[in-house]
Amino acid sequence: MPTNCGTIAGCGDTRRGRWTARTTAGCLTSGIHNLNAIRWDKPDKSFRDSLKPLKRVTWPISGNKTEKNYTYDALADWCFAAADEMPNVTGFDLDDFFIARGKSVTVQTATGPMPSCPTRFPYEQLVELRKRLSMYPRPLELRVVTYDELLDNRENPGDLKPSLDLVDAITYWTWKAKNIPGIPTHLAKLRKLAPGKPIYLGIYLWDFGSHKEMPLEMMEMQLKFALDGWKDGTLEGFVFLCSSICNRQYPAVLAARKWISEHGHLRRGQ
After folding, report:
1. What's the number of CA atoms in the CB half-sphere (13 Å) around residue 105?
2. Would you say 62 and 120 are in contact if contact means Cβ atoms under 8 Å apart?
3. Cβ(62)–Cβ(78) under 8 Å?
4. Can you tell me the distance from the alpha carbon of 113 to that of 240, in angstroms, rounded to the nearest whole number?
């Protein structure tokens, strides 16, 4: 993984107290120094301090009904306070932000009313967040998560555009391993919706959509798409998920670790 591009998404079981060790250690033992911390429970200072060895950290700011049910109102002030405290915080993630099967709503954008995919918090609050980020003393990236199934399930995928226009970057994931061969096609669709936006490729270490190990051939395919896209400039970087299994002896995990060790030093043009 090229040095300035790779990240691990850490998502562990906070209730069992295993999250900290898996997160920081998971990053560093994988040869990665960046973390998307995917949790919604406003972690305490001891956890935040454990992330000091990392170069870049991002927090989720969108909330999640299936976890702690935190809302934007509950998370926003905490996220900005964490950025004040931690100089290695580089942005916020809108994780699971789009409600894929919800009906379009009409929102008022800077260019007039537009249909919009429903989201975890209202479009008006996303506009407010965008303004707040513009006034922050240092740049903080706002990144939104997208999936292949999101693009496939929308009757009008163009209704993603109002929200995509307000973020700095996009992370794209393929939920089921069997659909990994379709990554180039889906990325092309996404680029049409958000031309010029940096796109990070999400790389699953486990086939979460099918509840089983990631097949080795599918992991190798993900890694090839990732490196080719990074080299030709169509991808900004990659996010590996997740830190809680990165020390398991699964063939796909071992292949990813080997790939990171072989390519982690590269910079574009090499």
Report:
1. 17
2. yes
3. no
4. 37
- Give residues with Cβ within 8 angstroms of 42, minimum separation 6: 70, 75, 78
- Residue 98: name the closest of 39, 27, 168, 171 by CA: 171
What global pTM score does this model have? 0.90
Contact 56, 34 (CB under 8 A): yes
H or E, element range at 90: strand 89-94
10, 56, 143, 193 from 82: Cα distances, Å:
17, 13, 17, 32
Q: Give the other-Cβ count within 10 Å of 232's Cβ.
A: 9
pLDDT at 134: 97
Q: What confidence tier does 22 reach under pLDDT thresholds 50, 70, 90?
A: low
Radius of gyration from C-alpha coordinates of the chain: 18
Q: Tell me the C-alpha distance between 114 and 7, whole Å.
A: 34
41 or 11, which is more confident: 41
Length of the chain: 270
Pairing assessment for the beta strands 169-173 and 199-204 based on DSSP bridges: parallel
Give residues with Cβ within 8 angstroms of 34, minimum separation 6: 6, 7, 8, 27, 54, 55, 56, 57
- Kindly tell me the sign of the dihedral angle through the C-alpha atoms of 67, 249, 206, 220: positive
Phi–psi pair at 109, nearest 5 degrees? -95, 180
